[in-house]
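[Discussion] Sanity-checking designs against the backbone

I'm trying to build intuition for which residues belong where. Below is a structure token string of 332 positions. I'd appreciate it if someone posts a full sequence so I can compare it with mine line by line.
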């Protein structure tokens, strides 16, 4: 058996995972041959995510990033998704089962962990190759997660309408706005939350795109009139990102961890190909719009993640992470 991995390094990679509002709702324990991953209820979002679904998905991404980092370090890994086995908030065990030479692919995926950032700015006007979408679909399938591009015009219209409706409902909810504000960071170098530099300053509703990104600055913008275009200005370029919907047959913690693992894989594969993404989960925050999406798209199972993907026009903004010492506990 190989020496115990350097869990500090592995957890540093795992915690580069995206998480809803950058709440980083995870805890880890490392022992000789295994890393246990737990949900941390102290980091919850009671208004946006009362069932912790999106936070458990976030933990699932961290599970995947840990596995990718271990494989790139030349270790064979098995992941067991076992919600509640050792503790009510225990989600998964990442177990090292031996050694094996890291492949070029292992290294490319591991390199993507640090390069990936949620990119909310408009993407370039270039299509995501359909071959890559097929590959993402196959890779998500290996986790029992379906992935489909929202490309049929009737599906696009339905999802856009639900997204707009959800954003409007959320913006009208004072408790939602207060929670969002609590996780927005204006001080440089904050270890968690969403730095204001990572979100576009303009009102997302004024962006020439069908796909409304979450407005993190709602109620905080200085009121003013938007610039009035001149009659002879060229029409604004309309953004046409690829939009991917991921879902699962079940809707319990196992399904959410698996959705997160698949999401982690999809994001790393896309980053390695030079692409970027940002979740658009407003329509999935609320049970009513989530159920409506299932019915209107005749989905088999439960939608878990909606993602816009495209070619980034500029490098993304790095967001903070809490030190590993805060989230990695000795086992036992
Ligand atoms: C389950 C989940 C849901 C998310 N929902 C949104 C969203 O609706 N809008 C958005 O702009 N970002 C969303 N994000 C992205 C997070 O805000 C982002 O991961 C976090 O701020 C850390 O930044 P990074 O991904 O650049 O490392 C979501 C991330 C996860 C994992």
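Best answer:
Here's mine. Compare freely.
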């Amino acid at each position: 058996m190989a020496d115990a991995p350097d869990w500090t390094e592995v957890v540093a990679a795992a915690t580069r995972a995206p998480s809803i509002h950058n709440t980083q709702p995870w805890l880890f324990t490392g022992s000789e041959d295994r890393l246990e991953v737990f949900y941390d209820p102290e980091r919850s979002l009671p208004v946006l995510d009362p069932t912790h679904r999106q936070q458990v998905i976030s933990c699932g991404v961290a599970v995947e990033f840990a596995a990718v980092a271990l494989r790139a370090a030349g270790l064979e890994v098995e992941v067991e998704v076992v919600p509640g086995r050792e503790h009510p908030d225990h989600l998964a065990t990442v177990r090292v089962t031996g050694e094996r030479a890291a492949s070029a692919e292992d290294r490319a995926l591991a390199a993507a962990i640090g390069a990936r950032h949620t990119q909310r700015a408009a993407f370039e006007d270039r299509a995501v190759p359909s071959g890559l979408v097929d590959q993402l679909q196959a890779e998500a399938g290996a986790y029992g997660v379906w992935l489909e591009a929202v490309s049929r015009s009737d599906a696009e219209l339905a999802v856009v309408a639900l997204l707009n409706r959800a954003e409007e409902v959320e913006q009208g909810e004072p408790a939602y706005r207060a929670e969002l504000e609590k996780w927005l960071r204006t001080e440089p170098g904050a270890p968690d939350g969403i730095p204001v530099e990572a979100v576009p300053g303009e009102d997302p509703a004024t962006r020439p795109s069908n796909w409304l990104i979450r407005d993190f600055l709602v109620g905080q913008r200085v009121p003013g009139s938007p610039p009035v275009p001149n009659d002879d200005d060229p029409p604004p370029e309309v953004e046409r990102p690829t939009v991917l919907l991921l879902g699962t047959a079940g809707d319990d913690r196992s399904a959410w961890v698996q959705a997160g693992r698949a999401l982690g894989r999809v994001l790393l594969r896309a980053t390695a190909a030079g692409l970027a993404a940002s979740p658009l989960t407003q329509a999935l925050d609320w049970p009513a719009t989530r159920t409506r999406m299932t019915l209107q798209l005749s989905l088999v199972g439960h939608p878990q993640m909606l993602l816009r993907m495209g070619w980034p026009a500029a490098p993304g903004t790095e967001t903070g992470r809490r030190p590993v010492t805060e989230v990695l506990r000795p086992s036992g």
